[in-house]
Amino acid sequence: MARQVELTIGVDVGGTKIAAGVVDPAGTVIDEVRVSTPATTAEAVETGIVTAVEQLAGKHTVEAVGIAIAGFVDESRATLRFAPNLPMEERPLQELLARATGLRSVVENDANAAAWGEFRFGGGRGSKDMVLLTVGTGLGGGIVLDDRLLRGAFGSAGEVGHVRMVPDGLACGCGNRGCWEQYSSGSALIREARALARSRPERAARLLDLAEGDAEAISGRMVTQAAAEGDPTALGLLAEVGRWLGEGIADLADILDPAAVVVGGGVSEAGDLLLQPAREAYEALLSAGGHRPHLKIVAAELGNAAGLVGAADLARHP
Amino acid sequence: MARQVELTIGVDVGGTKIAAGVVDPAGTVIDEVRVSTPATTAEAVETGIVTAVEQLAGKHTVEAVGIAIAGFVDESRATLRFAPNLPMEERPLQELLARATGLRSVVENDANAAAWGEFRFGGGRGSKDMVLLTVGTGLGGGIVLDDRLLRGAFGSAGEVGHVRMVPDGLACGCGNRGCWEQYSSGSALIREARALARSRPERAARLLDLAEGDAEAISGRMVTQAAAEGDPTALGLLAEVGRWLGEGIADLADILDPAAVVVGGGVSEAGDLLLQPAREAYEALLSAGGHRPHLKIVAAELGNAAGLVGAADLARHP
Amino acid sequence: MARQVELTIGVDVGGTKIAAGVVDPAGTVIDEVRVSTPATTAEAVETGIVTAVEQLAGKHTVEAVGIAIAGFVDESRATLRFAPNLPMEERPLQELLARATGLRSVVENDANAAAWGEFRFGGGRGSKDMVLLTVGTGLGGGIVLDDRLLRGAFGSAGEVGHVRMVPDGLACGCGNRGCWEQYSSGSALIREARALARSRPERAARLLDLAEGDAEAISGRMVTQAAAEGDPTALGLLAEVGRWLGEGIADLADILDPAAVVVGGGVSEAGDLLLQPAREAYEALLSAGGHRPHLKIVAAELGNAAGLVGAADLARHP
Amino acid sequence: MARQVELTIGVDVGGTKIAAGVVDPAGTVIDEVRVSTPATTAEAVETGIVTAVEQLAGKHTVEAVGIAIAGFVDESRATLRFAPNLPMEERPLQELLARATGLRSVVENDANAAAWGEFRFGGGRGSKDMVLLTVGTGLGGGIVLDDRLLRGAFGSAGEVGHVRMVPDGLACGCGNRGCWEQYSSGSALIREARALARSRPERAARLLDLAEGDAEAISGRMVTQAAAEGDPTALGLLAEVGRWLGEGIADLADILDPAAVVVGGGVSEAGDLLLQPAREAYEALLSAGGHRPHLKIVAAELGNAAGLVGAADLARHP
């Protein structure tokens, strides 16, 4: 009976759509809605959030709302400060939601929310110290230390994609050179696959086949598919991304000493074809490794729902 | 009156001597003893610790003891697991001290204890999230996040000296290549100073002068002295170490987002001659820096007492 | 009287115009014509070449013609094999010119011709072994060893711009990473100047001033002008390009041991603002430098005429 | 009959012994002597040279002598300027030999002489432009361009081992960092093999077996033997040295455009276990490779005799 009051809503606000779900204390999404958002104005996005919450709150008794959003959030987790890919700046989302729905809420960066979701219910379950690495278009991250989400002094902890791996290395959109995500991300995978298909078409025959002959149409998914079939070129491309991933994980281990690194994002669908090279590169850098237990590198388990589920859980424990 | 019960003892166990002090809640060392230790057996070191504590406890009413020691400590902060530079393995120091003195104690890694000391009473005062970097023979570190000391899953968080700065870079004693401490440490400073004095004696005239003509006798202190006098070669050598320091701090900022980085260790006695180049290198890597407040890079304030003071304070808040 | 028969014509074939000149044995251009070329077909370019030669040959008694062209030339120096920026492939230019004008000719890669020009009459005069580095949009080169132009087994010696300076470094249009010209060229200078103007406008105030406020309008010439005025940011940008230049020259010295490196191209107009940092970086890498004489790094002297003058001289000594 | 006058003597002067041989115009050694030299004084070495030449000249009618010696030789190829590993400086060897034996001679750097030997009679036969890379303790080289030995302006062309492969890379005995020979040489092979045997003894089981359990006793020959047996660790170690070899060859190709790179030295006894990874790394860096023929990477054929045979041939063509 009392069970209903323990339900919370998680909202994942993306650039083109909003996903919201009712989540129980075990992390199960028991109901879900999606609202497509014309991300043209802050008001349109906010209306979408309120609409999604109202739809779910009309059907379930919920305790609170967690909002996961790709941007910087203030320290009190009430206001979205700045969102690179949304037309929003200094928006008091917590206040807005309270006024519109009467519900208590917390706002959190989406990568952080996803890290929390994986920590509580996914690949990081059972570890007190965990890093989530999201290998998607870029390389994102979230950190949980000693059972707490690390937010950082200015709300930007876990921006691991811009750690410098190579001095004077590949140029990054951030203006720096040699950023980790230039070597270990879906964009890196696609860039290298296409470059190879242009310069060595005979070696990329299977990839070109999947892309109907157009090197520029090769996608990350095609590389994963070809690798799963055993294509050595595709396996090599994934292994290279995995190698850089493992080398960066060794750095994170020196600094944070987590028990687990959970790898999510689109490229992680390649599973051990990505993770095994990452583990080997990590191990190879641990020459002093005999003296301490090694962290485990595992796949994320919640997929796209991680942010929503994590936000809902953060709302439960304010 | 109740004042006395708030005193604690901090003990800093080094390879050749043990320093112990009575510390008040404001971090002031009100009494101190030093015991030289023939670090030949675990028993000799432990006898030294007990002796030092007994001397102080005989004169002051103390509540508890904090032991800072260069090694890996178990999760319950009771047992020294392994100390690279001491003949000690699996030593239950907490139990030993309780039996010998009746006092409650906590055992902590010395770099962690020093970080805590600077966080509470030194350069990190007033920041909730702080990293201490100790630029001594090597490059050590300790991390405080959200007002808590980061210990890591296996007790080795903050081992920042072995973060890889350069793929296939300078060989490190740890077996890897390109470790940060090969570029930013007292050893790096001395190595480069001596190499320059050998290959370009005319440019290292002031350094050779201080070393009475023997390139191999150039010390870090001599470089600092020459730099303080304005010698351009010495300034350049310190600036190079500082540049690498700042570049690594930019990586730490991406991961941890601390409010402050406190720089201690012998080389930090050069003050702004080291820190200003570090700040400039850090700033130069923050091209996306407009969007967030910058951390401050400041000098440590407690000198050699940081470990002792930090350990004493950790003992107070078990 | 006999003087006239020693005249030759040099032709420099570029993407938009053809420059041709009558050159005497001392390397002096005594007459010159320019033909603008619509580089749409091979025939149009060839007609331009023939026209220019005929105009000059009508006024002077000339012995032979040297054609400098940006492309790969066959071993007998008769046929243009392939030109990346011209619509020409497998064109027998020597035969064409003989048929159209009755004159003997040699065809040479333009960077090689320019190297020969500087070797005979410019900055490399008096050295038997010399490298020309052309720091323009990219980084080109030509090599003279033991008084002979180095052509290489496949006609592509001296393509120094694609020597790898940084493993996994900046992406290059050639498909590789870390190529020298990504760090030391006019494009590199402009890229870094604009990036700085975007991220640190206050530091690039003088450059933005020259570019009327538009970071994307900053040119290499503006950087040189600001540097000549003493602007520290512009000086730093040139020094960085110069540093990479000198570091690569140290590699060339290990391999080729030339007596001189002559630096030409648009960026070299900055003179010692570019060359002095190059010299310092070169010297710094020569720690074993005591054992051998050092090469000299000097400015090119012939400017845009180097290719034309060099080609004319190559025609004289077939 | 006239045949005898075409014989010459080649002398290879090493640190502990002198090898001399009578060589015919086809590069065949038809007689040979060895003299062990106590390399304590210049005179002792010179007496050894004269003794060896006299022994051979007593039995054969020879035309001239070529002396290959590890050091810097003057431009007229008459005087040894400086030899890092012999007690000799400014020694007029040509004059000495003329006085003692009445024979004409040329003196040449040993790596250059070996390159000439391979060019004329070994792996470089048939190429006009060739580089010899000697992968021994260090990484040495000699260059033949357009059928001529490249000596360089100061006699030190071909010192390729100190080309910088990695900025801020592994420290080199020369005082610089990141030199090619730190990554591609017998010393590099042994260093990595021993490091692996220390840190991962289980993976280096076969190597430790060959070294009777002592990691520090692992030799390059043991790695080659284990690799020939199929041991994956040894294969990986050789492949790593080969990879760096090929990457540096790509740089040489950009500069020199040789038709062939001939690989000699002790490590080259591993044959294709070294050369195949080198070829693959070279090919991988040639993304613009479609436009030009590729150089071939082949094994040296003359072994230790290359210097002696090359010197003898250089003496024939003064």
Keywords:
globular; Nucleotidyltransferase, domain 5; homotetramer; 318 residues; alpha/beta; 5-stranded mixed β-sheet; 2 domains
Would you give an account of this structure?
The structure is a homotetramer of 318-residue chains. Chain A has 2 domains: 2-116 and 305-316, ATPase, nucleotide binding domain (Nucleotidyltransferase, domain 5); 126-300, ATPase, nucleotide binding domain (Nucleotidyltransferase, domain 5). In chain A, 37% of the residues lie in helices and 20% in strands. Chain A has helices spanning 42-59, 93-101, 110-121, 186-199, 205-210, 220-229, 232-256, 272-284, 306-316, and strands spanning 8-13, 17-23, 29-36, 64-69, 72-73, 80-82, 89-91, 104-109, 130-135, 139-145, 148-149, 260-264, 296-299. In chain A, α1 (42-59) crosses α2. The radius of gyration of chain A is 20 Å and the shape is globular. Chains in contact: A-B, A-C, A-D, B-C, B-D, C-D. At the B-C interface, loops of B face loops of C.
Q: What is the CATH topology descriptor of the largest domain in chain A?
A: Nucleotidyltransferase, domain 5
Stretches of chain A where pLDDT is under 50 for at least 5 consecutive residues are: none
Can you name the CATH architecture of the largest domain in chain A? 2-Layer Sandwich
Rg of chain A over CA atoms, rounded to whole Å, is: 20 Å
What is the domain total for the residues of chain A?
2
Distance between the termini of chain A: 23 Å
Q: What structural category characterises the helix and strand content of chain A?
A: alpha/beta
Strand order of the largest sheet of chain A: 3-2-1-4-8
Beta fraction of the residues of chain A?
Answer: 15-25%
Shape, per Cα inertia axes of chain A:
globular
Total strands of chain A: the figure is: 13
